[in-house]
């Protein structure tokens, strides 16, 4: 597997004296699927903000391969191949599922190229492949506004995939999903990892178990425990601060 | 599909109007000169409505200053019409238009040069609104001014232009503007034949403008605009330069509005700073909202129907119009959020 590792070392973020991240260290290997769990306020979203350049760390190292992410702005980090799915899905309701993916497809983005744009076979294949990956092939011609909450989340993941990221950050994908949708989402994320790394932040332990990969538990801005889901669920410190509440 | 049919029916009906005007007065199918001239005006309004719908309905740029682009297009062609009067003015000056003689000009201001040629004037009817939109749009979109702030800026723009054009020393005829036109492209104005020619020219432009807008909205560019309208920052996240896209459509829309104004002025025979009044721009927004924003046919229908109501109302209760306009402004978004087209869809299926 070629690709870049994500590497956080001794990262701290201080907001007005409040330590949101505290000496956080974490490595995500190429192709890995990593779940991040932790109680509210543990710093999960802040960690994603640091990786995507939205928040600058107060100290510490953040690298993706050879690139120093602390020196780059959001746009260049995105160009580097780091995609992020926010908690609230934002797809374009007035456009069809297919058109949503088409907008996300890598292609020249100026007004004139967009006016001249013709869907060629290669682009169609790429879109259809993603449609299959996110399980929305049947809904390709429907407006995104008609999708269920879960399907909208998948569509947004699909839009990130169209940009061909090396690392995908997904913040609380299954919040508000039905059990069935949650199960499908786990399958979806397992399927897309491998070809790229995926970091999933989630509360739902059943879901994390379904992902079946390495889990990192955050607490008060640093790593409390790391390992398989069984390992962390049996870790005494984790039980105290999180599971055993 | 229903929409297309409605549009086609409208165009055919409109095309018949100048022909029916030729019938003898006694014929039950005779159409009066008044109807011909008023429908000619409404066609120009419909082009303006299309232009506004492109910016507002598709890209979400609620311009309350599109009347300014329309008026600038009108002024450009008006300058040409003034040049064509030549020495036939009241003062009989060999070069200068009457108002310049009256104001003591000794020579033609430099910015009047070139307007002797129709082609130049027509080009200016496109270029001047386009450039103004480029500058205003660039400043506003680059600073990410959207929503109500953008509306206020565009409204202020048309108001400022109105005040400027009211000034005699601007060289555009002050509050009287331009009138007493004689001819255009060798055709004497105010003859039934010329009226028909202008009418059909406007109708052709309306159809072409519709086809252009329809084609444009079906491209990926059109879909980017819709996406910007619904979630601008998300589009930015996808790597699109939102400023460029908005600027492109805003300039195009302003140019189309300029063409509408250029077709309008020869038909009504006058252009003055009142054309810049903020109320005009707001009326245009009401047409689009009433017809159904974001649908091109809706914009066209809206321009015709609101103006029909206005004409009908002002014939017996002119004071009521502003009240009705205000009511429409408030009631349409509440009762008819998708405009007349929304009704059509409910009635006739997809
Ligand atoms: N921009 C900010 N300014 C001040 N405090 C913040 C900011 N962003 C996050 N925080 C605080 O940092 C802590 C970690 O937040 P967050 O990363 O959102 O946690 P999580 O996503 O794990 O629930 C919270 O206590 C939150 O209130
Ligand atoms: Mg969070």
TrEMBL record, chain A:
Which residues belong to any copy of the ABC transporter domain?
Answer: 6-245
Q: What is this protein called?
A: Urea transport system ATP-binding protein
The record's InterPro entries line, in alphabetical order, gives: ABC_AA/LPS_Transport, ABC_transporter-like_ATP-bd, ABC_transptr_urea_ATP-bd_UrtD, P-loop_NTPase
Keyword annotations:
ATP-binding, Nucleotide-binding, Transport
Give the range the annotation lists for the signal sequence.
none
Q: One Pfam family for this entry, by name?
A: ABC_tran
Q: Which GO terms describe its cellular component?
A: plasma membrane
The answer to whether UniProt assigns keyword ATP-binding to this entry is yes
Q: Which organism is it from?
A: Humitalea rosea
A Gene Ontology molecular function term of the record: ATP binding
TrEMBL record, chain B:
- Organism, as annotated: Humitalea rosea
Molecular function per GO: branched-chain amino acid transmembrane transporter activity
The record's subcellular location field reads:
Cell membrane
Q: Does the keyword Zinc apply?
A: no
Q: What is this protein called?
A: Amino acid/amide ABC transporter membrane protein 2 (HAAT family)
List the PANTHER family. HIGH-AFFINITY BRANCHED-CHAIN AMINO ACID TRANSPORT SYSTEM PERMEASE, SLR1201 PROTEIN
What GO cellular component term, any one, is given?
plasma membrane
Just give the chief location class. membrane
The transmembrane residues are: 34-56, 68-86, 117-141, 148-166, 197-216, 247-265, 285-308, 320-341
Q: Which Pfam families match?
A: BPD_transp_2
Q: Which CDD domains does this UniProt record tie to the protein? A: TM_PBP1_LivM_like
């Amino acid at each position: 597997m070629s690709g870049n590792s994500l590497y956080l070392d001794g990262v701290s973020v201080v907001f007005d004296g409040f330590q949101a991240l505290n000496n956080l260290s974490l490595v995500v290997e190429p192709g890995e699927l990593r779940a991040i769990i932790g109680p509210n306020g543990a710093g999960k979203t802040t960690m994603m903000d640091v990786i995507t350049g939205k928040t600058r760390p107060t100290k510490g190292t953040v690298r993706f391969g050879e690139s120093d992410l602390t020196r780059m702005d959001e746009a260049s980090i995105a160009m580097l191949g780091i995609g992020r799915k926010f908690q609230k899905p934002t797809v374009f309701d007035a456009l069809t599922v297919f058109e949503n993916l088409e907008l996300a497809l890598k292609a020249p983005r100026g007004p004139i190229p967009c006016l001249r744009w013709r869907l060629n076979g290669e682009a169609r294949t790429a879109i259809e492949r993603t449609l299959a990956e996110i399980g929305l092939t049947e809904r390709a011609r429907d407006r995104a506004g008609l999708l269920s909450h879960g399907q909208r989340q998948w569509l947004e993941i699909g839009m990130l995939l169209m940009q061909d990221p090396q690392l995908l950050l997904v913040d609380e994908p299954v919040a508000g999903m039905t059990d069935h949708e949650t199960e499908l989402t786990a399958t979806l994320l397992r399927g897309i990892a491998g070809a790229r790394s995926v970091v999933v932040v989630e509360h739902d332990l059943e879901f994390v178990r379904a992902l079946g990969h390495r889990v990192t538990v955050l607490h008060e801005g640093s790593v409390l425990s790391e390992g398989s889901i069984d390992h962390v669920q049996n870790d005494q410190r984790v039980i105290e601060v999180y599971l055993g509440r | 599909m229903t929409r297309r049919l409605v549009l086609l029916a409208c165009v055919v009906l409109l095309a018949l109007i100048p022909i029916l005007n030729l019938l003898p007065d006694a014929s039950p199918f005779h159409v009066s000169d008044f109807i011909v001239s008023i429908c000619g005006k409404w066609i120009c309004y419909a082009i303006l409505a299309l232009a506004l719908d492109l910016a507002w309905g598709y890209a979400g740029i609620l311009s309350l200053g599109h009347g300014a682009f329309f008026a600038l297009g009108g002024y450009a062609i008006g300058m040409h019409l003034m040049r064509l009067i030549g020495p036939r003015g009241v003062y009989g000056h060999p070069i200068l238009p009457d108002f310049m003689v009256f104001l003591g000009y000794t020579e033609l201001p430099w910015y009047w040069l070139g307007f002797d040629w129709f082609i130049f004037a027509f080009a200016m009817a496109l270029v001047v609104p386009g450039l103004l939109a480029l500058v205003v749009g660039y400043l506003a979109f680059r600073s990410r001014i959207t929503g109500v702030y953008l509306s206020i800026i565009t409204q202020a723009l048309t108001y400022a232009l109105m005040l400027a054009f009211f000034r005699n020393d601007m060289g555009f005829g002050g509050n009287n503007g331009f009138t007493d036109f004689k001819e255009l492209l060798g055709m004497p104005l105010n003859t039934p034949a010329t009226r028909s020619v202008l009418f059909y020219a406007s109708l052709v432009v309306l159809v072409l403008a519709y086809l252009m807008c329809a084609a444009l909205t079906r491209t990926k560019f059109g879909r980017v605009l819709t996406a910007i309208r619904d979630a601008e920052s998300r589009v930015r996240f996808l790597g699109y330069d939102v400023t460029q896209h908005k600027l492109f459509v805003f300039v195009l829309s302003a140019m189309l509005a300029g063409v509408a104004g250029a077709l309008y002025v020869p038909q009504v025979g006058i252009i003055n700073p009142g054309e810049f009044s903020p109320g005009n721009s707001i009326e245009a927004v009401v047409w689009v909202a009433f017809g159904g924003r974001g649908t091109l046919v809706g914009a066209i229908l809206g321009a015709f129907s609101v103006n029909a109501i206005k004409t009908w109302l002002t014939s017996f209760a002119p004071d009521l119009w502003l009240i009705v306009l205000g009511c429409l402004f408030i009631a349409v978004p509440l009762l008819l959020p998708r405009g007349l087209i929304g009704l059509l869809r409910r009635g006739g299926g997809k």
